[in-house]
From TrEMBL, chain A:
Localization of this protein: Cell inner membrane; Cell membrane
Membrane-topology annotation of the record: Multi-pass membrane protein
Superkingdom of this protein's organism: Bacteria
Record's keyword annotation contains Translocase: no
Every ABC transmembrane type-1 domain range: 71-283
Location, primary (coarse class): membrane
Gene3D superfamilies, alphabetized: MetI-like
Alphabetical GO biological process terms: transmembrane transport
Function text: Part of the ABC transporter complex UgpBAEC involved in sn-glycerol-3-phosphate (G3P) import. Probably responsible for the translocation of the substrate across the membrane.
Keyword Transmembrane: yes
Quaternary structure note: The complex is composed of two ATP-binding proteins (UgpC), two transmembrane proteins (UgpA and UgpE) and a solute-binding protein (UgpB).
UniProt xrefs under InterPro entries: MetI-like, MetI-like_sf, UgpAE/MalFG_permease
Protein name as catalogued: sn-glycerol-3-phosphate transport system permease protein UgpA
Length: 293, 362, 282
C-alpha cells in the first residue's frame, strides 16, 4: 500500500492534498450530508417553516404507488438497455476481433459515439422518431404501427430504451474488444483442434473467459441507465407521457424542482445513493474475486 | 495412425512476406519427425499449417492419404501441445482433457475411462479436480499432453513444448515424451530450436532456415554429413569450426583432392587432437590459446590463428566465430598463451562450396 | 485459421458495416437535416440526402441563434462549453495529481483516512446530490460562473485513483537516485514524475474533457443567464417550444456542432482515449 521510498516532509503532504480535500468536502460531503438532513425535514407550502419529521418523508415515499412504479420502471429500463446494448456490442466485438483487414478502421468507426452527449442523443432520436416528421416514423407507419410516443407510454419507453442503448454501444464494444483480445489466441486454437466449431468455441471457451468483463459491464450499464439517461429523458419525453418514462433520478428532479417537495426529493436522493453504493460495492467485491488466469 | 506428407508447401502472407518457400517432407506412420532451426525459420508456421491454424498458399498437406488443405482443424483428427500449454483456464484438469472427447459426442463413461487412464500414465490422478492456475509448469505441461493423448489422434503436433521448463525438467520430460510416443506409436511432428532436443528425439530430422529445408534425414547422418555450412554449424555443440580454404597453409595441405573446388573447410571441435604429427591427407593448424573452458568431463580450448581474416561464417551475413574451438576429453589443457598444434584426419574433414550451400565429398 | 477464410469473413464484414450504419445513421440524419429547409422538414418530407442550405444554416446557428427561446448564438454557447470542459479536465488533473503524489510518496497521520475519504467520492455521481450542491454554490455566489460550473464536477476521485495506481508502479530506484542527486520533493515531482505521467495525463484529459463537455443536469441548474449557457442546454431549450416553432435545421446544426469537439478528440487521440477508458474503470 505504501512505497518504500518516501519523502520526510511533514507539512507538505497536507498542503498537496488540501485542494482536492477542500473541493471534496465542500462539494461532495457537505451536500451529501445536507441531502441526508433535508430528507428528514418537511417544508410547509410557503417555505416559511421547516420541521423535523424523522422518517416521515421516507414512509410517505414508500406509501406512494408512483414511487414503486418508478423503481420498477428504472430497473426494467436498466435491464432492457443493458441487455440490448451488451448483446449487440458483443456481436460487433466478436466480429471485429477476427484478423480482418481494416480492423483498426472498424474500431475507429464504432467508438466515436461515446463522445455524444445525452441531450444530443435525445435530440437525434426524437428527430428520427418524431411522430409527425421523423424519417423512421414514416417507415413504422408503413408497417402498420400507429407510432406516437408522445401519446403512447409504452412507445415512449421503447424510444428511451433504444436511444440509451444506442449511446452505450461503443463503450461496451470497446470493453468487449479489450476482453476478447486478452484471451490468449492459443487457447482458442487448442479448442479448435479439440474439435470445437466456432459456435461451440464461443459458448464453451470464449464466453466463460469473458464473464468478468460481462459482469463489470452489466453493473456499469445499470448505473449508467440510472443516471446518465437523465439528459436523454429530459430532451425526449420529459418523463411523460403520464410518467411512463420517469426514472428514479428524473423523479428526484421533478419532485424537487418542479414539485417543490424538497424533503421528498432529498429522501429519494438518499435512497438512490444507497442503491448506487450497493451496486458499486457488489461490483468491487466481485472484481476483487475476479481471477486472473 | 497415419503418415504426413508435405508436397511443395508454400506460404506467403498478405503483405508479401514469403514465410515458407517450398517444403517437401515425408513422415511415415509412427515416426517422430523434428523440425529444427533458428527463430523465424518457419518451423512453427509449418507445424501450424499442418494443424490448420495457418492457411496454405501453395502445395499440399496430406494426412493419412487425405489432402487436408481446406479442412478445419476440428476435422483433421490431430492433437497439439502448445508452448504455453494453452489449457482452458476456467476448466478443471479433468474437463480440460475431456473437452475434446465431449466435442466428438463420446459417452461420459468412456470419457471417464480414457481420462483416468491418461492421468494415471502422466501421474496426474491426484489433480483431476484442480484448475490450471493451481498447477506448476511441469504439471501443466503434462495436462497439455494428457489432453492430446486421450484423443488418440492420427498425428501429434508439438510446438516447442519444453521451452518454458527449467533445464532439469526439460531433460526428464524429453525422455518421457519419447517413451510415450514409442508406446503409442502415433506419428508425431515436433518443433524446437534446441538442436540437442532435436538430435535426441528425432527419427527424421528436418533442419530449416529462412523458410526452406536445409537438410532432411536421420540425425546421425546429418551430424556426420551436413549438407550445408548452416546445418554443419547448427547441429552439434560447440559448433563446427569453419575456415576458408584460401590461405596457403590450408590449400597446400588439401592439395590433390576435390578440395580445389571447395571454398570452406569444416572440422568439429571433437575431431581435433593436440599433436605435432600430421595424419596422412589430414589437416594441421597452429593455434595460440586464448581461453579455456573446463566443464568436468571435457575441456574446450579456444585458439586463435595467425590469419584471422580467413574466418568464415556459417550463413552469409552472419559474423564468423572468433576462434577455433578444440575439444579435449578430461581436464588436462594447455596454458593460456601457449602455442599448440592441432590436427584432424581426412575422414573428419567437411568440405563445402564457397557459398556454403553445397557439400563436396573429398 | 482455415475456417476464417471464405464466407465467414464476408459475414463479419457485413455485420460490422451494419453496426457502423446503425451507429452513424442518427448523426447522418442530423447532418442532412441541418442542410435542409425547415418547411420541408416540418412537412415530414425530408429526403435522405443533404440539401443546399449548409452555409446559411451554420452561419445563422453559430453567430445569430434561433428566434426561439434561446436567443444565444451557438458560437457563444460552445465557448462556454469549452471553458467548462477545459476547467474540469485540467482542474481535475492538477488537483488529483498532487493529491496522489502526497498519498503515495509521503507518510503522515490520517493518510489512509484521507485516501478513503477521497475514494468514496467515486461512488456517487453529481445527480444524486444535486440540490444541496446547488444551494451551496448559490450561497457561495457562484451561480452563473465558470467556477460554479466546474468545481463540483472536479470533486470525484477517478483521476486520483489513476495517478495513485500509476505512481505505485514507478520504481523506487528513481526516487532514491533523485534524492542522492540532491532533489527535494518539488524537484522530483517536476523533473521526474511529471514527465513520466504524461501519457496518463493525456489519456485522462481526453476522458475528462468529454465528460465535461457532455455535462447536462448540473449546468442546467446553475445557469440562469442566457449567455452562460452551455451548448447542451442550448440544444435542450431549442426543442422545448412547440413543434410548429422549432427551427429544425438550426437545432440539428447545433447538435452536429455539439458533437464535433468531443468526437474529434476521440478520433484524433484514439489510442489515448481507449487507454484512458480502460485505466479509469479498473
Amino acid at each position: 500500500m505504501q512505497k518504500q521510498a518516501i519523502f520526510q516532509s511533514k507539512l507538505l503532504p497536507y498542503a498537496l492534498v488540501a485542494p482536492q480535500l477542500a473541493i471534496v468536502l465542500i462539494f461532495f460531503y457537505w451536500p451529501a450530508l445536507q441531502a441526508m438532513i433535508q430528507s428528514f425535514l418537511l417544508q410547509d407550502a410557503f417555505g416559511l417553516s421547516t420541521s423535523f419529521v424523522w422518517f416521515e418523508n421516507y414512509i410517505e415515499l414508500f406509501k406512494e404507488p408512483a414511487y414503486f412504479e418508478a423503481i420498477l420502471r428504472t430497473f426494467f429500463f436498466s435491464f432492457a438497455i443493458a441487455v440490448s446494448s451488451l448483446s449487440f456490442a458483443l456481436l460487433l466485438a466478436v466480429m471485429a476481433d477476427k484478423p480482418l483487414r481494416g480492423s483498426m478502421l472498424y474500431r475507429t468507426l464504432l467508438i466515436w459515439p461515446y463522445a455524444v452527449a445525452p441531450p444530443v442523443v435525445g435530440v437525434l432520436w426524437i428527430f428520427m422518431l418524431h411522430p409527425s416528421l421523423g424519417v423512421l416514423s414514416r417507415y413504422l407507419r408503413a408497417l402498420g404501427i400507429d407510432w406516437n410516443p408522445l401519446l403512447d407510454g409504452d412507445q415512449a419507453a421503447a424510444l428511451i430504451i433504444l436511444a440509451a442503448a444506442w449511446k452505450q454501444i461503443s463503450y461496451n464494444f470497446l470493453f468487449f474488444l479489450a476482453g476478447l483480445q486478452s484471451i490468449p489466441r492459443s487457447v482458442i486454437e487448442a479448442a479448435a483442434i479439440d474439435g470445437a466449431r466456432p459456435m461451440r468455441r464461443f459458448w464453451t471457451v470464449i464466453f466463460p473467459l469473458l464473464s468478468p468483463t460481462i459482469f463489470f459491464l452489466l453493473v456499469v450499464n445499470i448505473v449508467y441507465a440510472f443516471f446518465d439517461t437523465f439528459g436523454i429523458i429530459d430532451t425526449m419525453t420529459r418523463g411523460g407521457p403520464g410518467k411512463s418514462t420517469e426514472t428514479l433520478v428524473y423523479k428526484v428532479y421533478t419532485d424537487g424542482l418542479l414539485g417543490g417537495n424538497l424533503g421528498s426529493s432529498a429522501a429519494q436522493s438518499v435512497i438512490l445513493m444507497i442503491m448506487v453504493i450497493v451496486l458499486t460495492g457488489i461490483q468491487f467485491r466481485f472484481v476483487e474475486r475476479k481471477v486472473t488466469y | 495412425m497415419a503418415n504426413v506428407t508435405l508436397r511443395s508447401v508454400r506460404k506467403t502472407y498478405p503483405g508479401g512476406f514469403e514465410a515458407i518457400k517450398g517444403v517437401d517432407v515425408d513422415v511415415g506412420d509412427g515416426q517422430f519427425c523434428v523440425l529444427v532451426g533458428p527463430s523465424g525459420c518457419g518451423k512453427s508456421t509449418l507445424l501450424r499449417m499442418v494443424a490448420g491454424l495457418e492457411t496454405v498458399t501453395g502445395g499440399e498437406i496430406d494426412i493419412g492419404g487425405r489432402v487436408v488443405n481446406g479442412v478445419e482443424p476440428a476435422d483433421r483428427d490431430i492433437a497439439m501441445v502448445f508452448q504455453n500449454y494453452a489449457l482452458y483456464p476456467h476448466m478443471s484438469v479433468y474437463n480440460n482433457m475431456a473437452y475434446g472427447l465431449r466435442n466428438r459426442g463420446m459417452a461420459e463413461a468412456e470419457i471417464k475411462t480414457r481420462v483416468e487412464e491418461a492421468a494415471r500414465v502422466l501421474e496426474l490422478s491426484a489433480m483431476l479436480e484442480r484448475k490450471p492456475r493451481q498447477l506448476s509448469g511441469g504439471q501443466r505441461q503434462r495436462v497439455a499432453m494428457g489432453r492430446a493423448i486421450v484423443r488418440q489422434p492420427k498425428v501429434f503436433l508439438f510446438d516447442e513444448p519444453l521451452s518454458n521448463l527449467d533445464a532439469k525438467l526439460r531433460i526428464a520430460m524429453r525422455v518421457e515424451i519419447r517413451k510415450l510416443q514409442r508406446r503409442l506409436n502415433t506419428t508425431s511432428i515436433y518443433v524446437t530450436h534446441d538442436q540437442l532436443e532435436a538430435m535426441t528425439l528425432a527419427d527424421i530430422l528436418v533442419v530449416m532456415n529462412g523458410g526452406q529445408v536445409e537438410q532432411i534425414g536421420n540425425p546421425l547422418d546429418i551430424y556426420e554429413k551436413p549438407a550445408t555450412t548452416f546445418v554443419a554449424s547448427f547441429i552439434g555443440a560447440p559448433p563446427m569450426n569453419l575456415v576458408s580454404t584460401r590461405p596457403e597453409e590450408i590449400r597446400l595441405q588439401l592439395a590433390g583432392s576435390n578440395a580445389a573446388d571447395a571454398g570452406i573447410l569444416g572440422i568439429r571441435p571433437e575431431d581435433f587432437v593436440i599433436t605435432d604429427e600430421t595424419p596422412d591427407g589430414g589437416i594441421a593448424l597452429a593455434l595460440t590459446v586464448e581461453a579455456i573452458e573446463r566443464v568436468g568431463a571435457e575441456t574446450f580450448v579456444y585458439g586463435s590463428r595467425e590469419q584471422e581474416d580467413q574466418r568464415v561464417a556459417a550463413t552469409p551475413g552472419e559474423l564468423p566465430p572468433g576462434e577455433v574451438i578444440v575439444r579435449i576429453p578430461g581436464t588436462q589443457a594447455p596454458a593460456i598463451g601457449a602455442r599448440i598444434r592441432v590436427a584432424a584426419v581426412r575422414a573428419k574433414l567437411h568440405l563445402f562450396s564457397g557459398d556454403g550451400r553445397k557439400r563436396i565429398e573429398a | 485459421m482455415v475456417e476464417e477464410e471464405g464466407f465467414r469473413r464476408y459475414i463479419a464484414h457485413i455485420i460490422l458495416w451494419i453496426g457502423i450504419a446503425i451507429v452513424a445513421f442518427p448523426v447522418y440524419l442530423a447532418f442532412v437535416a441541418s442542410t435542409q429547409d425547415n418547411a420541408v422538414i416540418a412537412n415530414g418530407q425530408m429526403s435522405l440526402l443533404p440539401g443546399g442550405h449548409f452555409f446559411q444554416t451554420y452561419y445563422q446557428t453559430i453567430f445569430i441563434g434561433t428566434s426561439g427561446s434561446t436567443r444565444e448564438p451557438v458560437g457563444n454557447m460552445m465557448l462556454n462549453s469549452l471553458v467548462m470542459a477545459l476547467l474540469i479536465a485540467l482542474g481535475k488533473i492538477a488537483v488529483s495529481i498532487i493529491s496522489a503524489y502526497a498519498i503515495v510518496y509521503f507518510r503522515f497521520p490520517f493518510r489512509m483516512a484521507l485516501f478513503w475519504l477521497i475514494f468514496i467520492t467515486l461512488m456517487l455521481p453529481v445527480e444524486v446530490r444535486i440540490y444541496p450542491t446547488y444551494k451551496i454554490v448559490a450561497d457561495l455566489h457562484m451561480l452563473d460562473s465558470y467556477a460554479g460550473l466546474s468545481l463540483p464536477l472536479i470533486a470525484s476521485a477517478t483521476a486520483t485513483l489513476l495517478f495513485r495506481q500509476f505512481f505505485m508502479t514507478v520504481p523506487d530506484e528513481l526516487l532514491e537516485a533523485s534524492r542522492i542527486d540532491g532533489a527535494g520533493p518539488f524537484r522530483f515531482f517536476w523533473d521526474t514524475l511529471l514527465p513520466l505521467s504524461r501519457t496518463n495525463m493525456a489519456a485522462l484529459f481526453v476522458i475528462l474533457f468529454i465528460l465535461g463537455w457532455n455535462q447536462y443536469l448540473w449546468p442546467l441548474l446553475i445557469t440562469t443567464r442566457d449567455d452562460m449557457q452551455t451548448i447542451q442546454i442550448g440544444i435542450r431549450k431549442m426543442i422545448t417550444t412547440t413543434d410548429a416553432l422549432t427551427e429544425w435545421p438550426i437545432v440539428m446544426a447545433t447538435a452536429v456542432l455539439a458533437m464535433l469537439p468531443p468526437v474529434f478528440v476521440v478520433v484524433a487521440m484514439q489510442k489515448l482515449f481507449v487507454r484512458g477508458l480502460v485505466e479509469t474503470e479498473k
